[in-house]
Amino acid sequence: MNMFPEDFAWGASTAAYQIEGGWDADGKGESIWDAFCHRDDSSVFERHTGDVSCNSYHLWEEDLRCIEELGLTHYRLSLSWSRLLPDGTTGHVNQQGVRYYNQVLDGLLARGVTPMVTLYHFDLPQALQDRGGWQSADTPALFDAYARFCFGAFGDRVRLWITLNEPYVCAKLGHEDGLHAPGVRGAAYRAGHHMLRAHALAWHSYDAGYRRAQGGLVSMAINSDWAEPEDADSAEDAAAAARYLAFSLGWFAWPLFVSGDYPEVMRAAVDARLPRFSGVQPAVLGTADFFALNYYTARKVRSVGVDGGAPSMKKDLGAEGVVDPAWPLCGLPWLAVAPHGLRQLLKYIKATFNHPAVYITENGFAQTGPVLMEDGERAAFYRETVGEVAKAIEEDGVDVRGYFAWSLLDNFEWTDGYGARFGLFHVDFSDDERARTMYRSGREYAAIISKHRSRSRAHRELTSS
Ligand code: GBH
């Protein structure tokens, strides 16, 4: 009967580069996304940039009002590394950046909202990119120093930390396809390896130096589509779907949760380009205090062979995923509505990773084209998806601790610029005030939260009397 635990986290997520603007305000350093969007040959939709975006750097109090209006218990935001440490190192701290995040965190706590803080959401300081970025074996230690700085500065008020958001996307789109900053090709496995090492260092730093005093939890947000065989009776398609999961979720979850190494199927398929963990200290295995999952969509998967040509991830994977024509689209070719896939993926996570506590740290659906304030389809999407999460908890026994909608606000959607709107609030980007207005989907999500919170309160009162 749809019973969520009373302390279930009902949240929404954002990321610094996507909402803050103030790209060079008050001593902020340049990030790789600033540089990527400012290129003369920028590949971003209509050459949009995050220079101003939602202007949350100046309008953060508006964001707090939106959070309150939704009745969120939790809010997930990311810190801009180059706003805090303009050249990426702790050699120079930008106090204005520290002040900014202090205001936001204090504002959340004053309103009874629990922050979840991501240290890195795709926006490496350009100064570190100039030193090799994620392709360099020196970057993990620099990330660790940044993480320790953040634990020290903000950890008295933050209990839920995400080190890196979606290393898959940063590695695959940023270092294989060249579609995301820094626009590198052919270096995904190497970049991913250094991100895993960066994460592990930061987790161990927290464990050794901060956990006792601060009592928080640290994880990495891992994204994956759900993958099911295109032909349910085909053993080849079943193997292809398993490979698809191994190359997305497994790439980062296996080292953290299973073996301290990449999945066997990756090892079997990829040549020497897949780095080794042997001798790597500290250990990567066991460095996640909960499972943080970003889920958006699903794929029907079939086996494909790629003959000849240069080595590529596509060739290594030997599989291809397509969208079921029955799943509604929203104008973004990759994003089909498949809420059932979330339940399936949660079951898979429970079975594969030894029943971890799970936070769904992102999930959402977009609109493209003319703005629709009465976005009934998106409202239905949230209703159905939360229903699937309820089934995962009640019928499958998955230990789901929270659900975060992507996103609080319409924002800069990476290569799609402002052409795709994921917000629970509409943002008017043509107006200096960047007015925020709740969509019907926002009203729906607020109603879902209020219904479930009063149900679980009533349930507790009944069972404790
Ligand atoms: C999340 O990634 C991000 O964390 C967030 O910042 C973003 O705003 C949100 O999704 C919505 O997109 O263009 O065909 O190569 C979600 C996982 C994986 C979805 C890569 C888009 C690109 C497919 N993303 N995918 S394609």
TrEMBL record:
<keyword id="KW-0326">Glycosidase</keyword>
<dbReference type="Pfam" id="PF00232">
    <property type="entry name" value="Glyco_hydro_1"/>
</dbReference>
<protein>
    <submittedName>
        <fullName>Glucosidase, beta, acid 3 (gene/pseudogene)</fullName>
    </submittedName>
</protein>
<dbReference type="InterPro" id="IPR018120">
    <property type="entry name" value="Glyco_hydro_1_AS"/>
</dbReference>
<dbReference type="InterPro" id="IPR017853">
    <property type="entry name" value="GH"/>
</dbReference>
<dbReference type="GO" id="GO:0005975">
    <property type="term" value="P:carbohydrate metabolic process"/>
</dbReference>
<dbReference type="GO" id="GO:0017042">
    <property type="term" value="F:glycosylceramidase activity"/>
</dbReference>
<dbReference type="InterPro" id="IPR001360">
    <property type="entry name" value="Glyco_hydro_1"/>
</dbReference>
<dbReference type="GO" id="GO:0005829">
    <property type="term" value="C:cytosol"/>
</dbReference>
<feature type="active site" description="Nucleophile">
    <location>
        <position position="362"/>
    </location>
</feature>
<dbReference type="GO" id="GO:0046477">
    <property type="term" value="P:glycosylceramide catabolic process"/>
</dbReference>
<keyword id="KW-0378">Hydrolase</keyword>
<dbReference type="GO" id="GO:0004565">
    <property type="term" value="F:beta-galactosidase activity"/>
</dbReference>
<dbReference type="GO" id="GO:0016020">
    <property type="term" value="C:membrane"/>
</dbReference>
<dbReference type="InterPro" id="IPR033132">
    <property type="entry name" value="GH_1_N_CS"/>
</dbReference>
<comment type="similarity">
    <text>Belongs to the glycosyl hydrolase 1 family.</text>
</comment>
